[in-house]
Automatic annotation (TrEMBL):
Protein name (database record): Class I SAM-dependent methyltransferase
Family: Belongs to the CFA/CMAS family.
GO molecular function: methyltransferase activity
Lipid metabolism found in the keyword field: yes
Amino acid sequence: MAGAALRLQNLFEQLLGAPLPVRIRAWDGSQDGPPDAPTLVVRNRRALRRLLFKPGELGLARAWVAGDLDVDGDLYTALDLMAGLVWERGEDARTLAGALRDPEVRAAVRGLVKLAGPPLPPAPPPEEVRRGRGHLHTKRSDRRAISHHYDVGNDFYELVLGSSMVYSCAYWQAPESEGGTLEDAQRDKLELVSRKLGLSPGQRLLDVGCGWGSMAIHAAREHGVSVVGVTLSQEQAAYARKRVADEGLTDRVEIRVQDYRDVADGPYDAISSIGMAEHVGAERYLEYATDLYRLLGPGGRLLNHQIARRPRRDESAYSVDEFIDAYVFPDGELAPIGTTVTQLERAGFEVRDVESIREHYALTLRRWVANLESDWATALRLVSPGRARVWRLYMAASALAFERNRIGVNQVLAVKTTEAGGSGLPLRTRTWN
């Protein structure tokens, strides 16, 4: 009888309608597939049962997180080769029900069932978010979602993010191969935001989703502003407060565990929202924009730094990525940049500048993956093996998504103009480059 690897290659080819572009090594030691390609390691039959009970991305994600599936070779290459067959089949791809009308596909499924062994659904890995009841993006559900992602240990984030502790796209003057460093690029991003906001001594800045305090500290130290930073993460807030105290900035920086919807001590001269709006959700986005507009004084500026997805022909068909929703950012949603601009304008803002920095995020993510991989043993001591595997997969896949223009990231500068229409901006705004 043929080894499990050859049987899997044949079955996957029937199911996917195309040759599998990676090599397979199965639990019985057999191997099959392109000799020079990365190897998909199927460690046990449980991986197949996960795919059968949850066909598609969630089944693959569960198998990866649990360690039932692995990749031997370059992870980026493997993901890139697999993306066209599994993750990026397009809006016109066959549905599972349609595919099962094909006798060959039905035969392949029966073969996979036989190869998988006893038909018991494996329990999801413990790292998968457990859904509560109720509506999305309430204050309570947002606190749970933020805690799932951010309260996993500050030491782990230090390992991944490096000394800058900035968890958003850096701004690279030059890639590392040409002498740039992650720390320099993150400092340059914070300075870019500060210049776009026109920060000057004596102003008040609200940093929405302040993370570990890097933007708040930079703005206070380098530009002399008073800062209120808000986060829903207890661990982030504790870490940020210590950093503020160590910098001697407690008289100018206040870190709160507070929902942005509860901030009521405006007006502020400027608001930074860096990598936070992805958590807001489509149903709440106008509320988010309106709240920030309310908190600004006349002439105040908002810098909204946000990941965007490509628009769909049928926007009603958009659904959140299953792996990201279950393991990374519960309830997170991406919107096209045009939708974001429209909502900001509906809230009353004048949008003055949109800058895409998509390639910068790919460089940033690759650096974070390298940090994680270079100290993998420490990562496994700080978090569960499943959590570390979640991060490695999500960051590597995201880097490819930015490189291939499947998603982007944009900085949107918006102004609450005065009653007379004044923006306070120079005639040429691109003076910060």
